[in-house]
Amino acid sequence: MSSDETVLEDLLEGKHRALARVISKIENRSPGYRDLVSELYAHTGEADVIGITGSPGAGKSTLVDKLAETYRERGETVGVIAIDPSSPFTGGAVLGDRIRMASTVGDMDVFVRSMSARGTLGGLSTATADAVKAMDAFGKDKIIIETVGAGQNEIDIVRTADTVAVLVPPGSGDEIQTLKAGILEIADVFVVNKADRDGADRTVQELRDMIQLGNESGFAAGGGDGHHSQEVIDAHDDWDGESVEDESDAGWTTPIVETVATSGEGIETLLEAFHDHRTYLHDSGEHAEQVRQRYAEEIRTLLREDIHAMLEEELADSGGIDALAERVRTGETDPYAIAGEVLAPVDACLEELETE
Amino acid sequence: MSSEQEQESIRCLVAKVGLDGHDRGAHVIARAFRDAGFEVIYSGLHKAPEEIVQATVQEDVDVLGISILSGAHDTLVPKIMDGLAEYDAKNDTLVLAGGVIPDEDREQLEEQGVSAIFGPGTSVEETIEFVRENAPER
């Protein structure tokens, strides 16, 4: 039996060391890791995958810690993938989210794994998706992906999750921030963490306005005066009165949940929101669509990586990219012309395939 | 094919264990390791040996660097080593110790599986070099 088969068997048997090793193989792209991940697919599909994102200092790790603790109290096992950026210069990274995972210390059934971006071109989101599969196959009930919401890379990563929570700290900017494209759009649930701080009410209000604006532009529903009592906000699933009922058939209205992660306040409500979203996904059939899209993206990423690798090899064989760049620098040619030249044989090959 | 190319990075856990509350040295090492291109996981202060074991196993680190200034290394380090052994993680983890460790205690720590001890005054370059040369092949 090969060592990969042994490690796979150990993982399926629930050995933590084997899970850790499989994730390393995925991260390292060790020889044979693809076969290993292929094998994992047959054992996946049971776990709920939740993505948590938000700006640095929003309190993600503390919240994840409390979520993990609450899941454990309910008898469910938890996997956490905490993603931190790495240096673009040295590739080094300090992966610090683990520090705040204090509530579940000594409990191996909370499996925390820190990851950083090593490759490029969607490499991290592929690695994350594969690590989720490893945890799923291992038998984790809940898998939480935690990442700083700073850009496209993070958005790709949280797409790996069924439900995405975006943390918005109080006072995180004027309303124009909430109009900008990006991480707010991917939220299935908004979490205003540190809700005991000044400005929390205003942030909730801004988010609510934004959601309402979105609904109105979708189809002329909504209205309302924009003033709600605190109780109504807390009971997120009916915070908007009638207009929500109108929309319940049409789609998911992103709830806003207020939490104080340090004290655990609001965690139960947040878990309810996750549960509601999951129910919605399954009842509406959106889950199937979501999973299909995810696999489509995985296939695309793999193809892109493979083709990229072939091209890199080709470039290396033909004297390296530096020589080509030098030709551009000296004004001999331009990047577009070179791309055309390099890809011409590929084009020819594909055409040949089509005519066959 | 180069998509199968390995993207290995040396992973280190920089650990503070026990009661001592000074982690400046640990921060300096964490940063130096980061700048050397390693992936560093920092444990935070006041960790119990079992927390360090849990992190070492789950994070599958190549290197565990334990920083102790409190003098409790002779009770804490063996607990960590036993915990690693329990999860089959002892043999392929390079364990280093740093901080204030009297000469007469070194032999005992080395017997327990600590590969090197870096006392006060050790240059970070020396430590990084040692890690590069001795990080386990897996």
TrEMBL record, chain A:
One of its GO terms (molecular function) is GTP binding. PANTHER family: LAO_AO TRANSPORT SYSTEM ATPASE, LYSINE/ARGININE/ORNITHINE TRANSPORT SYSTEM KINASE. NCBIfam families: lao. It comes from Natronorubrum daqingense. Belongs to the SIMIBI class G3E GTPase family. ArgK/MeaB subfamily. It comes from the Archaea. Signal peptide: none annotated. This is LAO/AO transport system kinase. It holds the Pfam family MeaB. InterPro entries: GTPase/Isobutyryl-CoA_mutase (IPR052040), GTPase_ArgK (IPR005129), P-loop_NTPase (IPR027417). Keywords: Chaperone, GTP-binding, Hydrolase, Kinase, Nucleotide-binding, Transferase.
Automatic annotation (TrEMBL), chain B:
Keywords: Cobalamin, Cobalt, Isomerase, Metal-binding. One of its GO terms (molecular function) is isomerase activity. Gene3D superfamilies: Cobalamin-binding domain. InterPro entries: Acid_CoA_mut_C (IPR006159), Cobalamin-bd (IPR006158), Cobalamin-bd_sf (IPR036724). The keyword Metal-binding applies. NCBIfam families: acid_CoA_mut_C (TIGR00640). Belongs to the methylamine corrinoid protein family. This is Methylmalonyl-CoA mutase. It comes from Natronorubrum daqingense.
